[in-house]
Amino acid sequence: LDPAWLGSPIASATKRVFLIRHGQAEHNVLFEGGRKEEGKKILDPGLTEKGHSQALSVRTNPLLKKFFESKGHNHVIVTSPLRRTIQTTLNAFGTWRDEVNTEHGRHITILCNPDIQETGEIRCDCGRPLDQVKSEFGLKYPYLDFSNVHDDWHLKQGDYRDRGDLLRKRFNRFTKWIHELPEENVVVVGHHNIFLANVGVSFLNCEVREFEVSPNGTWIPITPKVSNHDDELMEEEKTHVSIYGGHCKMKMEGWGLEVPGRFR
User: Fold this and answer.
1) pLDDT value at position 166?
2) Strand, helix or coil at 46?
3) How far apart are CA 128 and CA 134, in angstroms?
4) R_g of the chain, CA atoms, integer Å
């Protein structure tokens, strides 16, 4: 990324960031079942039963082993304020968070940040007014921190329009914000297209990918690396690429961004 985005000095330390895509949501099922137009019409869709199970399985992901063993020390969790990402975050980390709070007296908050909301201006990629989100989640889960979420965050206007330059702008802003956090290790629960536009990878549902983020805003993939050829992909990945490969190419071209040689 261009260092010009920084605007002001940021922390010098390199950050370790774990990007996680949300679990399977209602619109994903319709999209993959050839009912794309139906899927687009669902406002802020939630997780399916399978999506909840996928989110629970994040607890056993080997890339997050040190995170869970750390009891949250020097780690922070960040989520997009959409329903499917909050549900994924709560399923993946909620019980663990409660255990750490009870056993170690550590009050761990989960930060919500609208700069990693999904890109589209269609209903399934739009959130809801902040008071509605708080009504659904805030009372039951008071450790969700909405202080970074403004009242009109869900309106696809200004920096939240679905344009390549604006997607990069808000992700750059998010990267700068990450560097200003005191924690060295950051877990981020977000969405397929915002990750695609900025790190060039097509994520599976609840996939975890580890990155090193340098002080100048460069995202360096650590684990896993992007494959060199299809023989390195698992069958699930091959199926995913067969479904989403064309979509990814179309999106990157539409945004005016460089199309990577491989999306996984």
Assistant:
1) 98
2) coil
3) 10
4) 18
Q: Sign of torsion, CA 4 219 112 129?
A: positive
190 forms beta bridges with 21
| pTM (two decimals) | 0.93
CA dist., res. 212 & res. 217, Å (int):
10
Query: Containing H/E element for 75?
Result: strand 75-79
DSSP, collapsed to helix, strand or coil, labels residue 112 as strand
Residue 64's CB: how many other CB atoms inside 10 A? 22
Q: Give me the torsion for CA of 135, 17, 62, 75, rounded to 10°.
A: -60
Q: What are the structural domain ranges in the chain? A: 3-226
| Low-confidence stretches of the chain (pLDDT beneath 70) | 1-12
* Secondary structure percentages of the chain, helix, strand, coil, to 5: 45, 15, 40
CATH fold, domain 3-226, is Rossmann fold (3.40.50)
Token pair 């922070």 is at which residue? 76
| pLDDT tens column, 116-147 | 999 999 999 999 999 999 999 999 999 999 99
CA-wise closest residue to 18 among 170, 250, 222, 163: 222
Token pair listed for 115 = 């700069």
